[in-house]
Write a sequence for this structure.
């Protein structure tokens, strides 16, 4: 969908008549049904006035095509500005421009350890966003990788960013070394560089197309490019972390069959794959991502949390910095405005973590489950209901079934049972469920299992063990319940210790761009549920805080002991005023599920320290008792 399109002459005239922003506003209301905020309206007037100056050059063809707010098909992403035409060889050419209102140099800072992120003032606060050159480069890759017309007609797509209010300085953070690859592919033009941007456009658009290239791209069939197919296939091949065994292969083959069936009969299908910790849900999802892409489908891996996306993308890419595969990993809030059946298959990992609303303030869209099912012919939800760990988590089998029925999507249930984490011990998982009073289990025999579970006397003991276990492969981490405030001023400083227990002091995982699960420095930090859920390590140390204790012969949870900075129980106090019993039930479930999740991240061992001595004694006795069972 294109909000505004015309020839260069049309665009120049509309700007001269001060009607361009009004036309866009009216088109958005009629085509998308939404009103335009004043700030967005003013940004159009500002940026498009600048683009008027850029295009006001006779060497840029008068009949070149112009598009504003171009929606990239099969996504909710919109390109700010496009110029289309033909190059010197009469081949189709397209320049795409990302327009930014950034101004103050002091408000833009590099993010250490992240090759595509910057901190800048936007939306009324300093926020972490992608570098403009990376953003527009990724949009260009989406078009090239999934538009059959662009591939078949060899249309040249040239991305760039325009920060027309931004004053560039020597050693500017915008030009930091970590961003250079993206700047080479998609240059960023700043204040005073109008002529450079104009020359950039003139190199690609030599002749006008009267919007023909724009029309062909907009109507192009969706098909993954051969280069994208080859890239994802080569990343999977020989990567031992993604080898499937036992029922993983069975589930994988059945999902392949059902997904391909959607492409022949064009019926919607929803597949719900139930599986506990370590059953291989992500392994199946990543293999499906590769194989279905090979079969000409537009497929995306979806998760609410960014940590799994970052880690598995890094494991696939290895040392490769720039790859089209980046666009295959999406957040669960990416489908609010996508439209019906615009993707072929969406693979939703950690589906229990889905939220009702999307966006920074949870005010966008209607329901993430509904939006995902609506967007794809085939939607696959990998779920473990015992891993819902916040008040906002709505992911449940019943909720998925409800929306599938409403959207007339056929439902198939599958299950992954074989346990590969915790050294394949179903007994360990059953033991955790039993001792944490999550559910009664009869089979929790730990005798003879090759899994190192210890209850430690101090957090220092946990740290010493985990540091030693981490040496061979950088695959051991310390995790903790969210009972200590995250000190905002120290988010990038390992010398600022958020977690203090007696003489023991450590920092929460730092706010750098490097994922906690793979960073070499993470051994000096403590991870929380949000940076570890959906991931696995060889060994984990888990610190259980004051939100869980043992009292009068039973496990007690206490949400008042959670940190003020913890958002997972946001709204619980309000609920407690209206329905205290329900508030206690919800909080109890979330706290127990949190520690169950943390204690099942280790494949070979788990070392636990409890701030409550009674709880430590209870767990220690439970370990001894379970190891003696026959």
């Amino acid at each position: 969908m294109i909000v505004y399109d015309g020839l260069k002459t049309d665009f120049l005239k509309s700007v001269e008549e001060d009607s361009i922003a009004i036309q866009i506003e009216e088109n958005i209301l009629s085509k998308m049904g939404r009103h335009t905020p004043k700030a967005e309206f003013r940004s159009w007037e500002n940026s498009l006035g600048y683009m008027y100056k850029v295009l006001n050059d006779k060497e840029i063809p008068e009949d070149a095509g112009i598009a504003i707010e171009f929606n990239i098909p099969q996504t909710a992403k919109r390109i700010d500005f496009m110029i289309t035409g033909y190059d010197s060889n009469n081949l189709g050419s397209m320049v795409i421009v990302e327009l930014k209102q950034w101004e103050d140099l002091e408000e833009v800072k590099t993010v250490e350890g992240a090759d595509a992120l910057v901190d800048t003032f936007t939306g009324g606060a300093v926020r972490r966003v992608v570098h403009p050159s990376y953003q527009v480069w990724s949009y260009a890759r989406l078009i090239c990788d999934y538009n059959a017309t662009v591939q078949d007609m060899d249309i040249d797509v040239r991305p760039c960013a325009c920060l027309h209010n931004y004053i560039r300085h020597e050693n500017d953070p915008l030009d930091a070394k970590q961003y250079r690859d993206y700047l080479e592919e998609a240059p960023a033009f700043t204040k005073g560089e109008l002529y450079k941007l104009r020359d950039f456009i003139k190199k690609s658009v030599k002749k006008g197309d009267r919007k023909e290239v724009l029309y062909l791209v907009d109507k192009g069939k969706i098909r993954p490019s051969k280069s994208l197919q080859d890239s994802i296939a080569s990343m999977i091949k020989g990567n031992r972390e993604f080898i499937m065994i036992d029922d993983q292969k069975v589930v994988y083959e059945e999902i392949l069959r059902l997904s391909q069936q959607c492409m022949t009969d064009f019926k919607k299908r929803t597949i719900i794959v139930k599986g506990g910790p370590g059953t291989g849900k992500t392994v199946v999802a990543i293999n499906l991502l590769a194989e279905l892409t090979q079969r000409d489908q537009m497929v995306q891996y979806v998760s609410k949390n960014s940590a799994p996306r970052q880690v598995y993308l890094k494991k696939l890419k290895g040392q490769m910095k720039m790859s089209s595969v980046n666009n295959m990993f999406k957040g669960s809030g990416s489908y609010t405005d996508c439209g019906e059946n615009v993707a072929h298959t969406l693979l939703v990992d950690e589906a229990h973590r889905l939220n009702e609303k999307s966006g920074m303030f949870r005010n966008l869209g209607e329901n993430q489950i509904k939006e995902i099912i609506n967007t794809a012919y085939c939607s696959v939800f990998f779920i473990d209901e015992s891993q819902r760990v916040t008040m906002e988590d709505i992911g449940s089998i019943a909720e998925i079934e409800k929306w599938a029925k409403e959207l007339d999507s056929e439902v198939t249930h599958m299950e992954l049972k074989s346990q590969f984490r915790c050294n394949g011990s179903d007994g360990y998982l059953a033991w955790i469920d039993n001792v944490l009073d999550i559910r009664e289990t009869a089979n929790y025999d730990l005798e003879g299992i090759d899994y190192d579970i210890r209850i430690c006397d101090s957090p220092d003991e946990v740290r010493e063990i985990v540091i030693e276990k981490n040496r061979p492969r950088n695959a051991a981490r310390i995790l903790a319940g969210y009972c200590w405030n995250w000190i905002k001023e120290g988010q990038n400083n390992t010398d600022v210790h958020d977690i203090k227990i007696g003489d023991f002091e450590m920092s929460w995982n730092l706010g750098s761009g490097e994922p906690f699960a793979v960073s070499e420095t993470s051994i000096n930090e403590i991870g929380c549920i949000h940076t570890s859920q959906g991931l696995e390590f060889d060994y984990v140390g888990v610190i259980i805080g004051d939100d869980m204790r043992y009292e009068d012969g039973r496990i007690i949870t206490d949400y008042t002991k959670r940190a003020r900075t913890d958002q997972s129980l946001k709204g619980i106090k309000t609920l407690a005023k209206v329905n205290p019993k329900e508030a206690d039930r919800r909080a109890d479930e979330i706290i127990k599920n949190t520690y169950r999740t943390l204690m099942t991240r280790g494949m070979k061992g788990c070392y636990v320290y409890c701030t409550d001595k009674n709880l430590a004694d209870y767990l220690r006795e439970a370990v001894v008792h379970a190891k003696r069972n026959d």
Observations:
- The domain at 226-416 is CATH 3.40.50.300 (Rossmann fold).
- The mean pLDDT is 91.
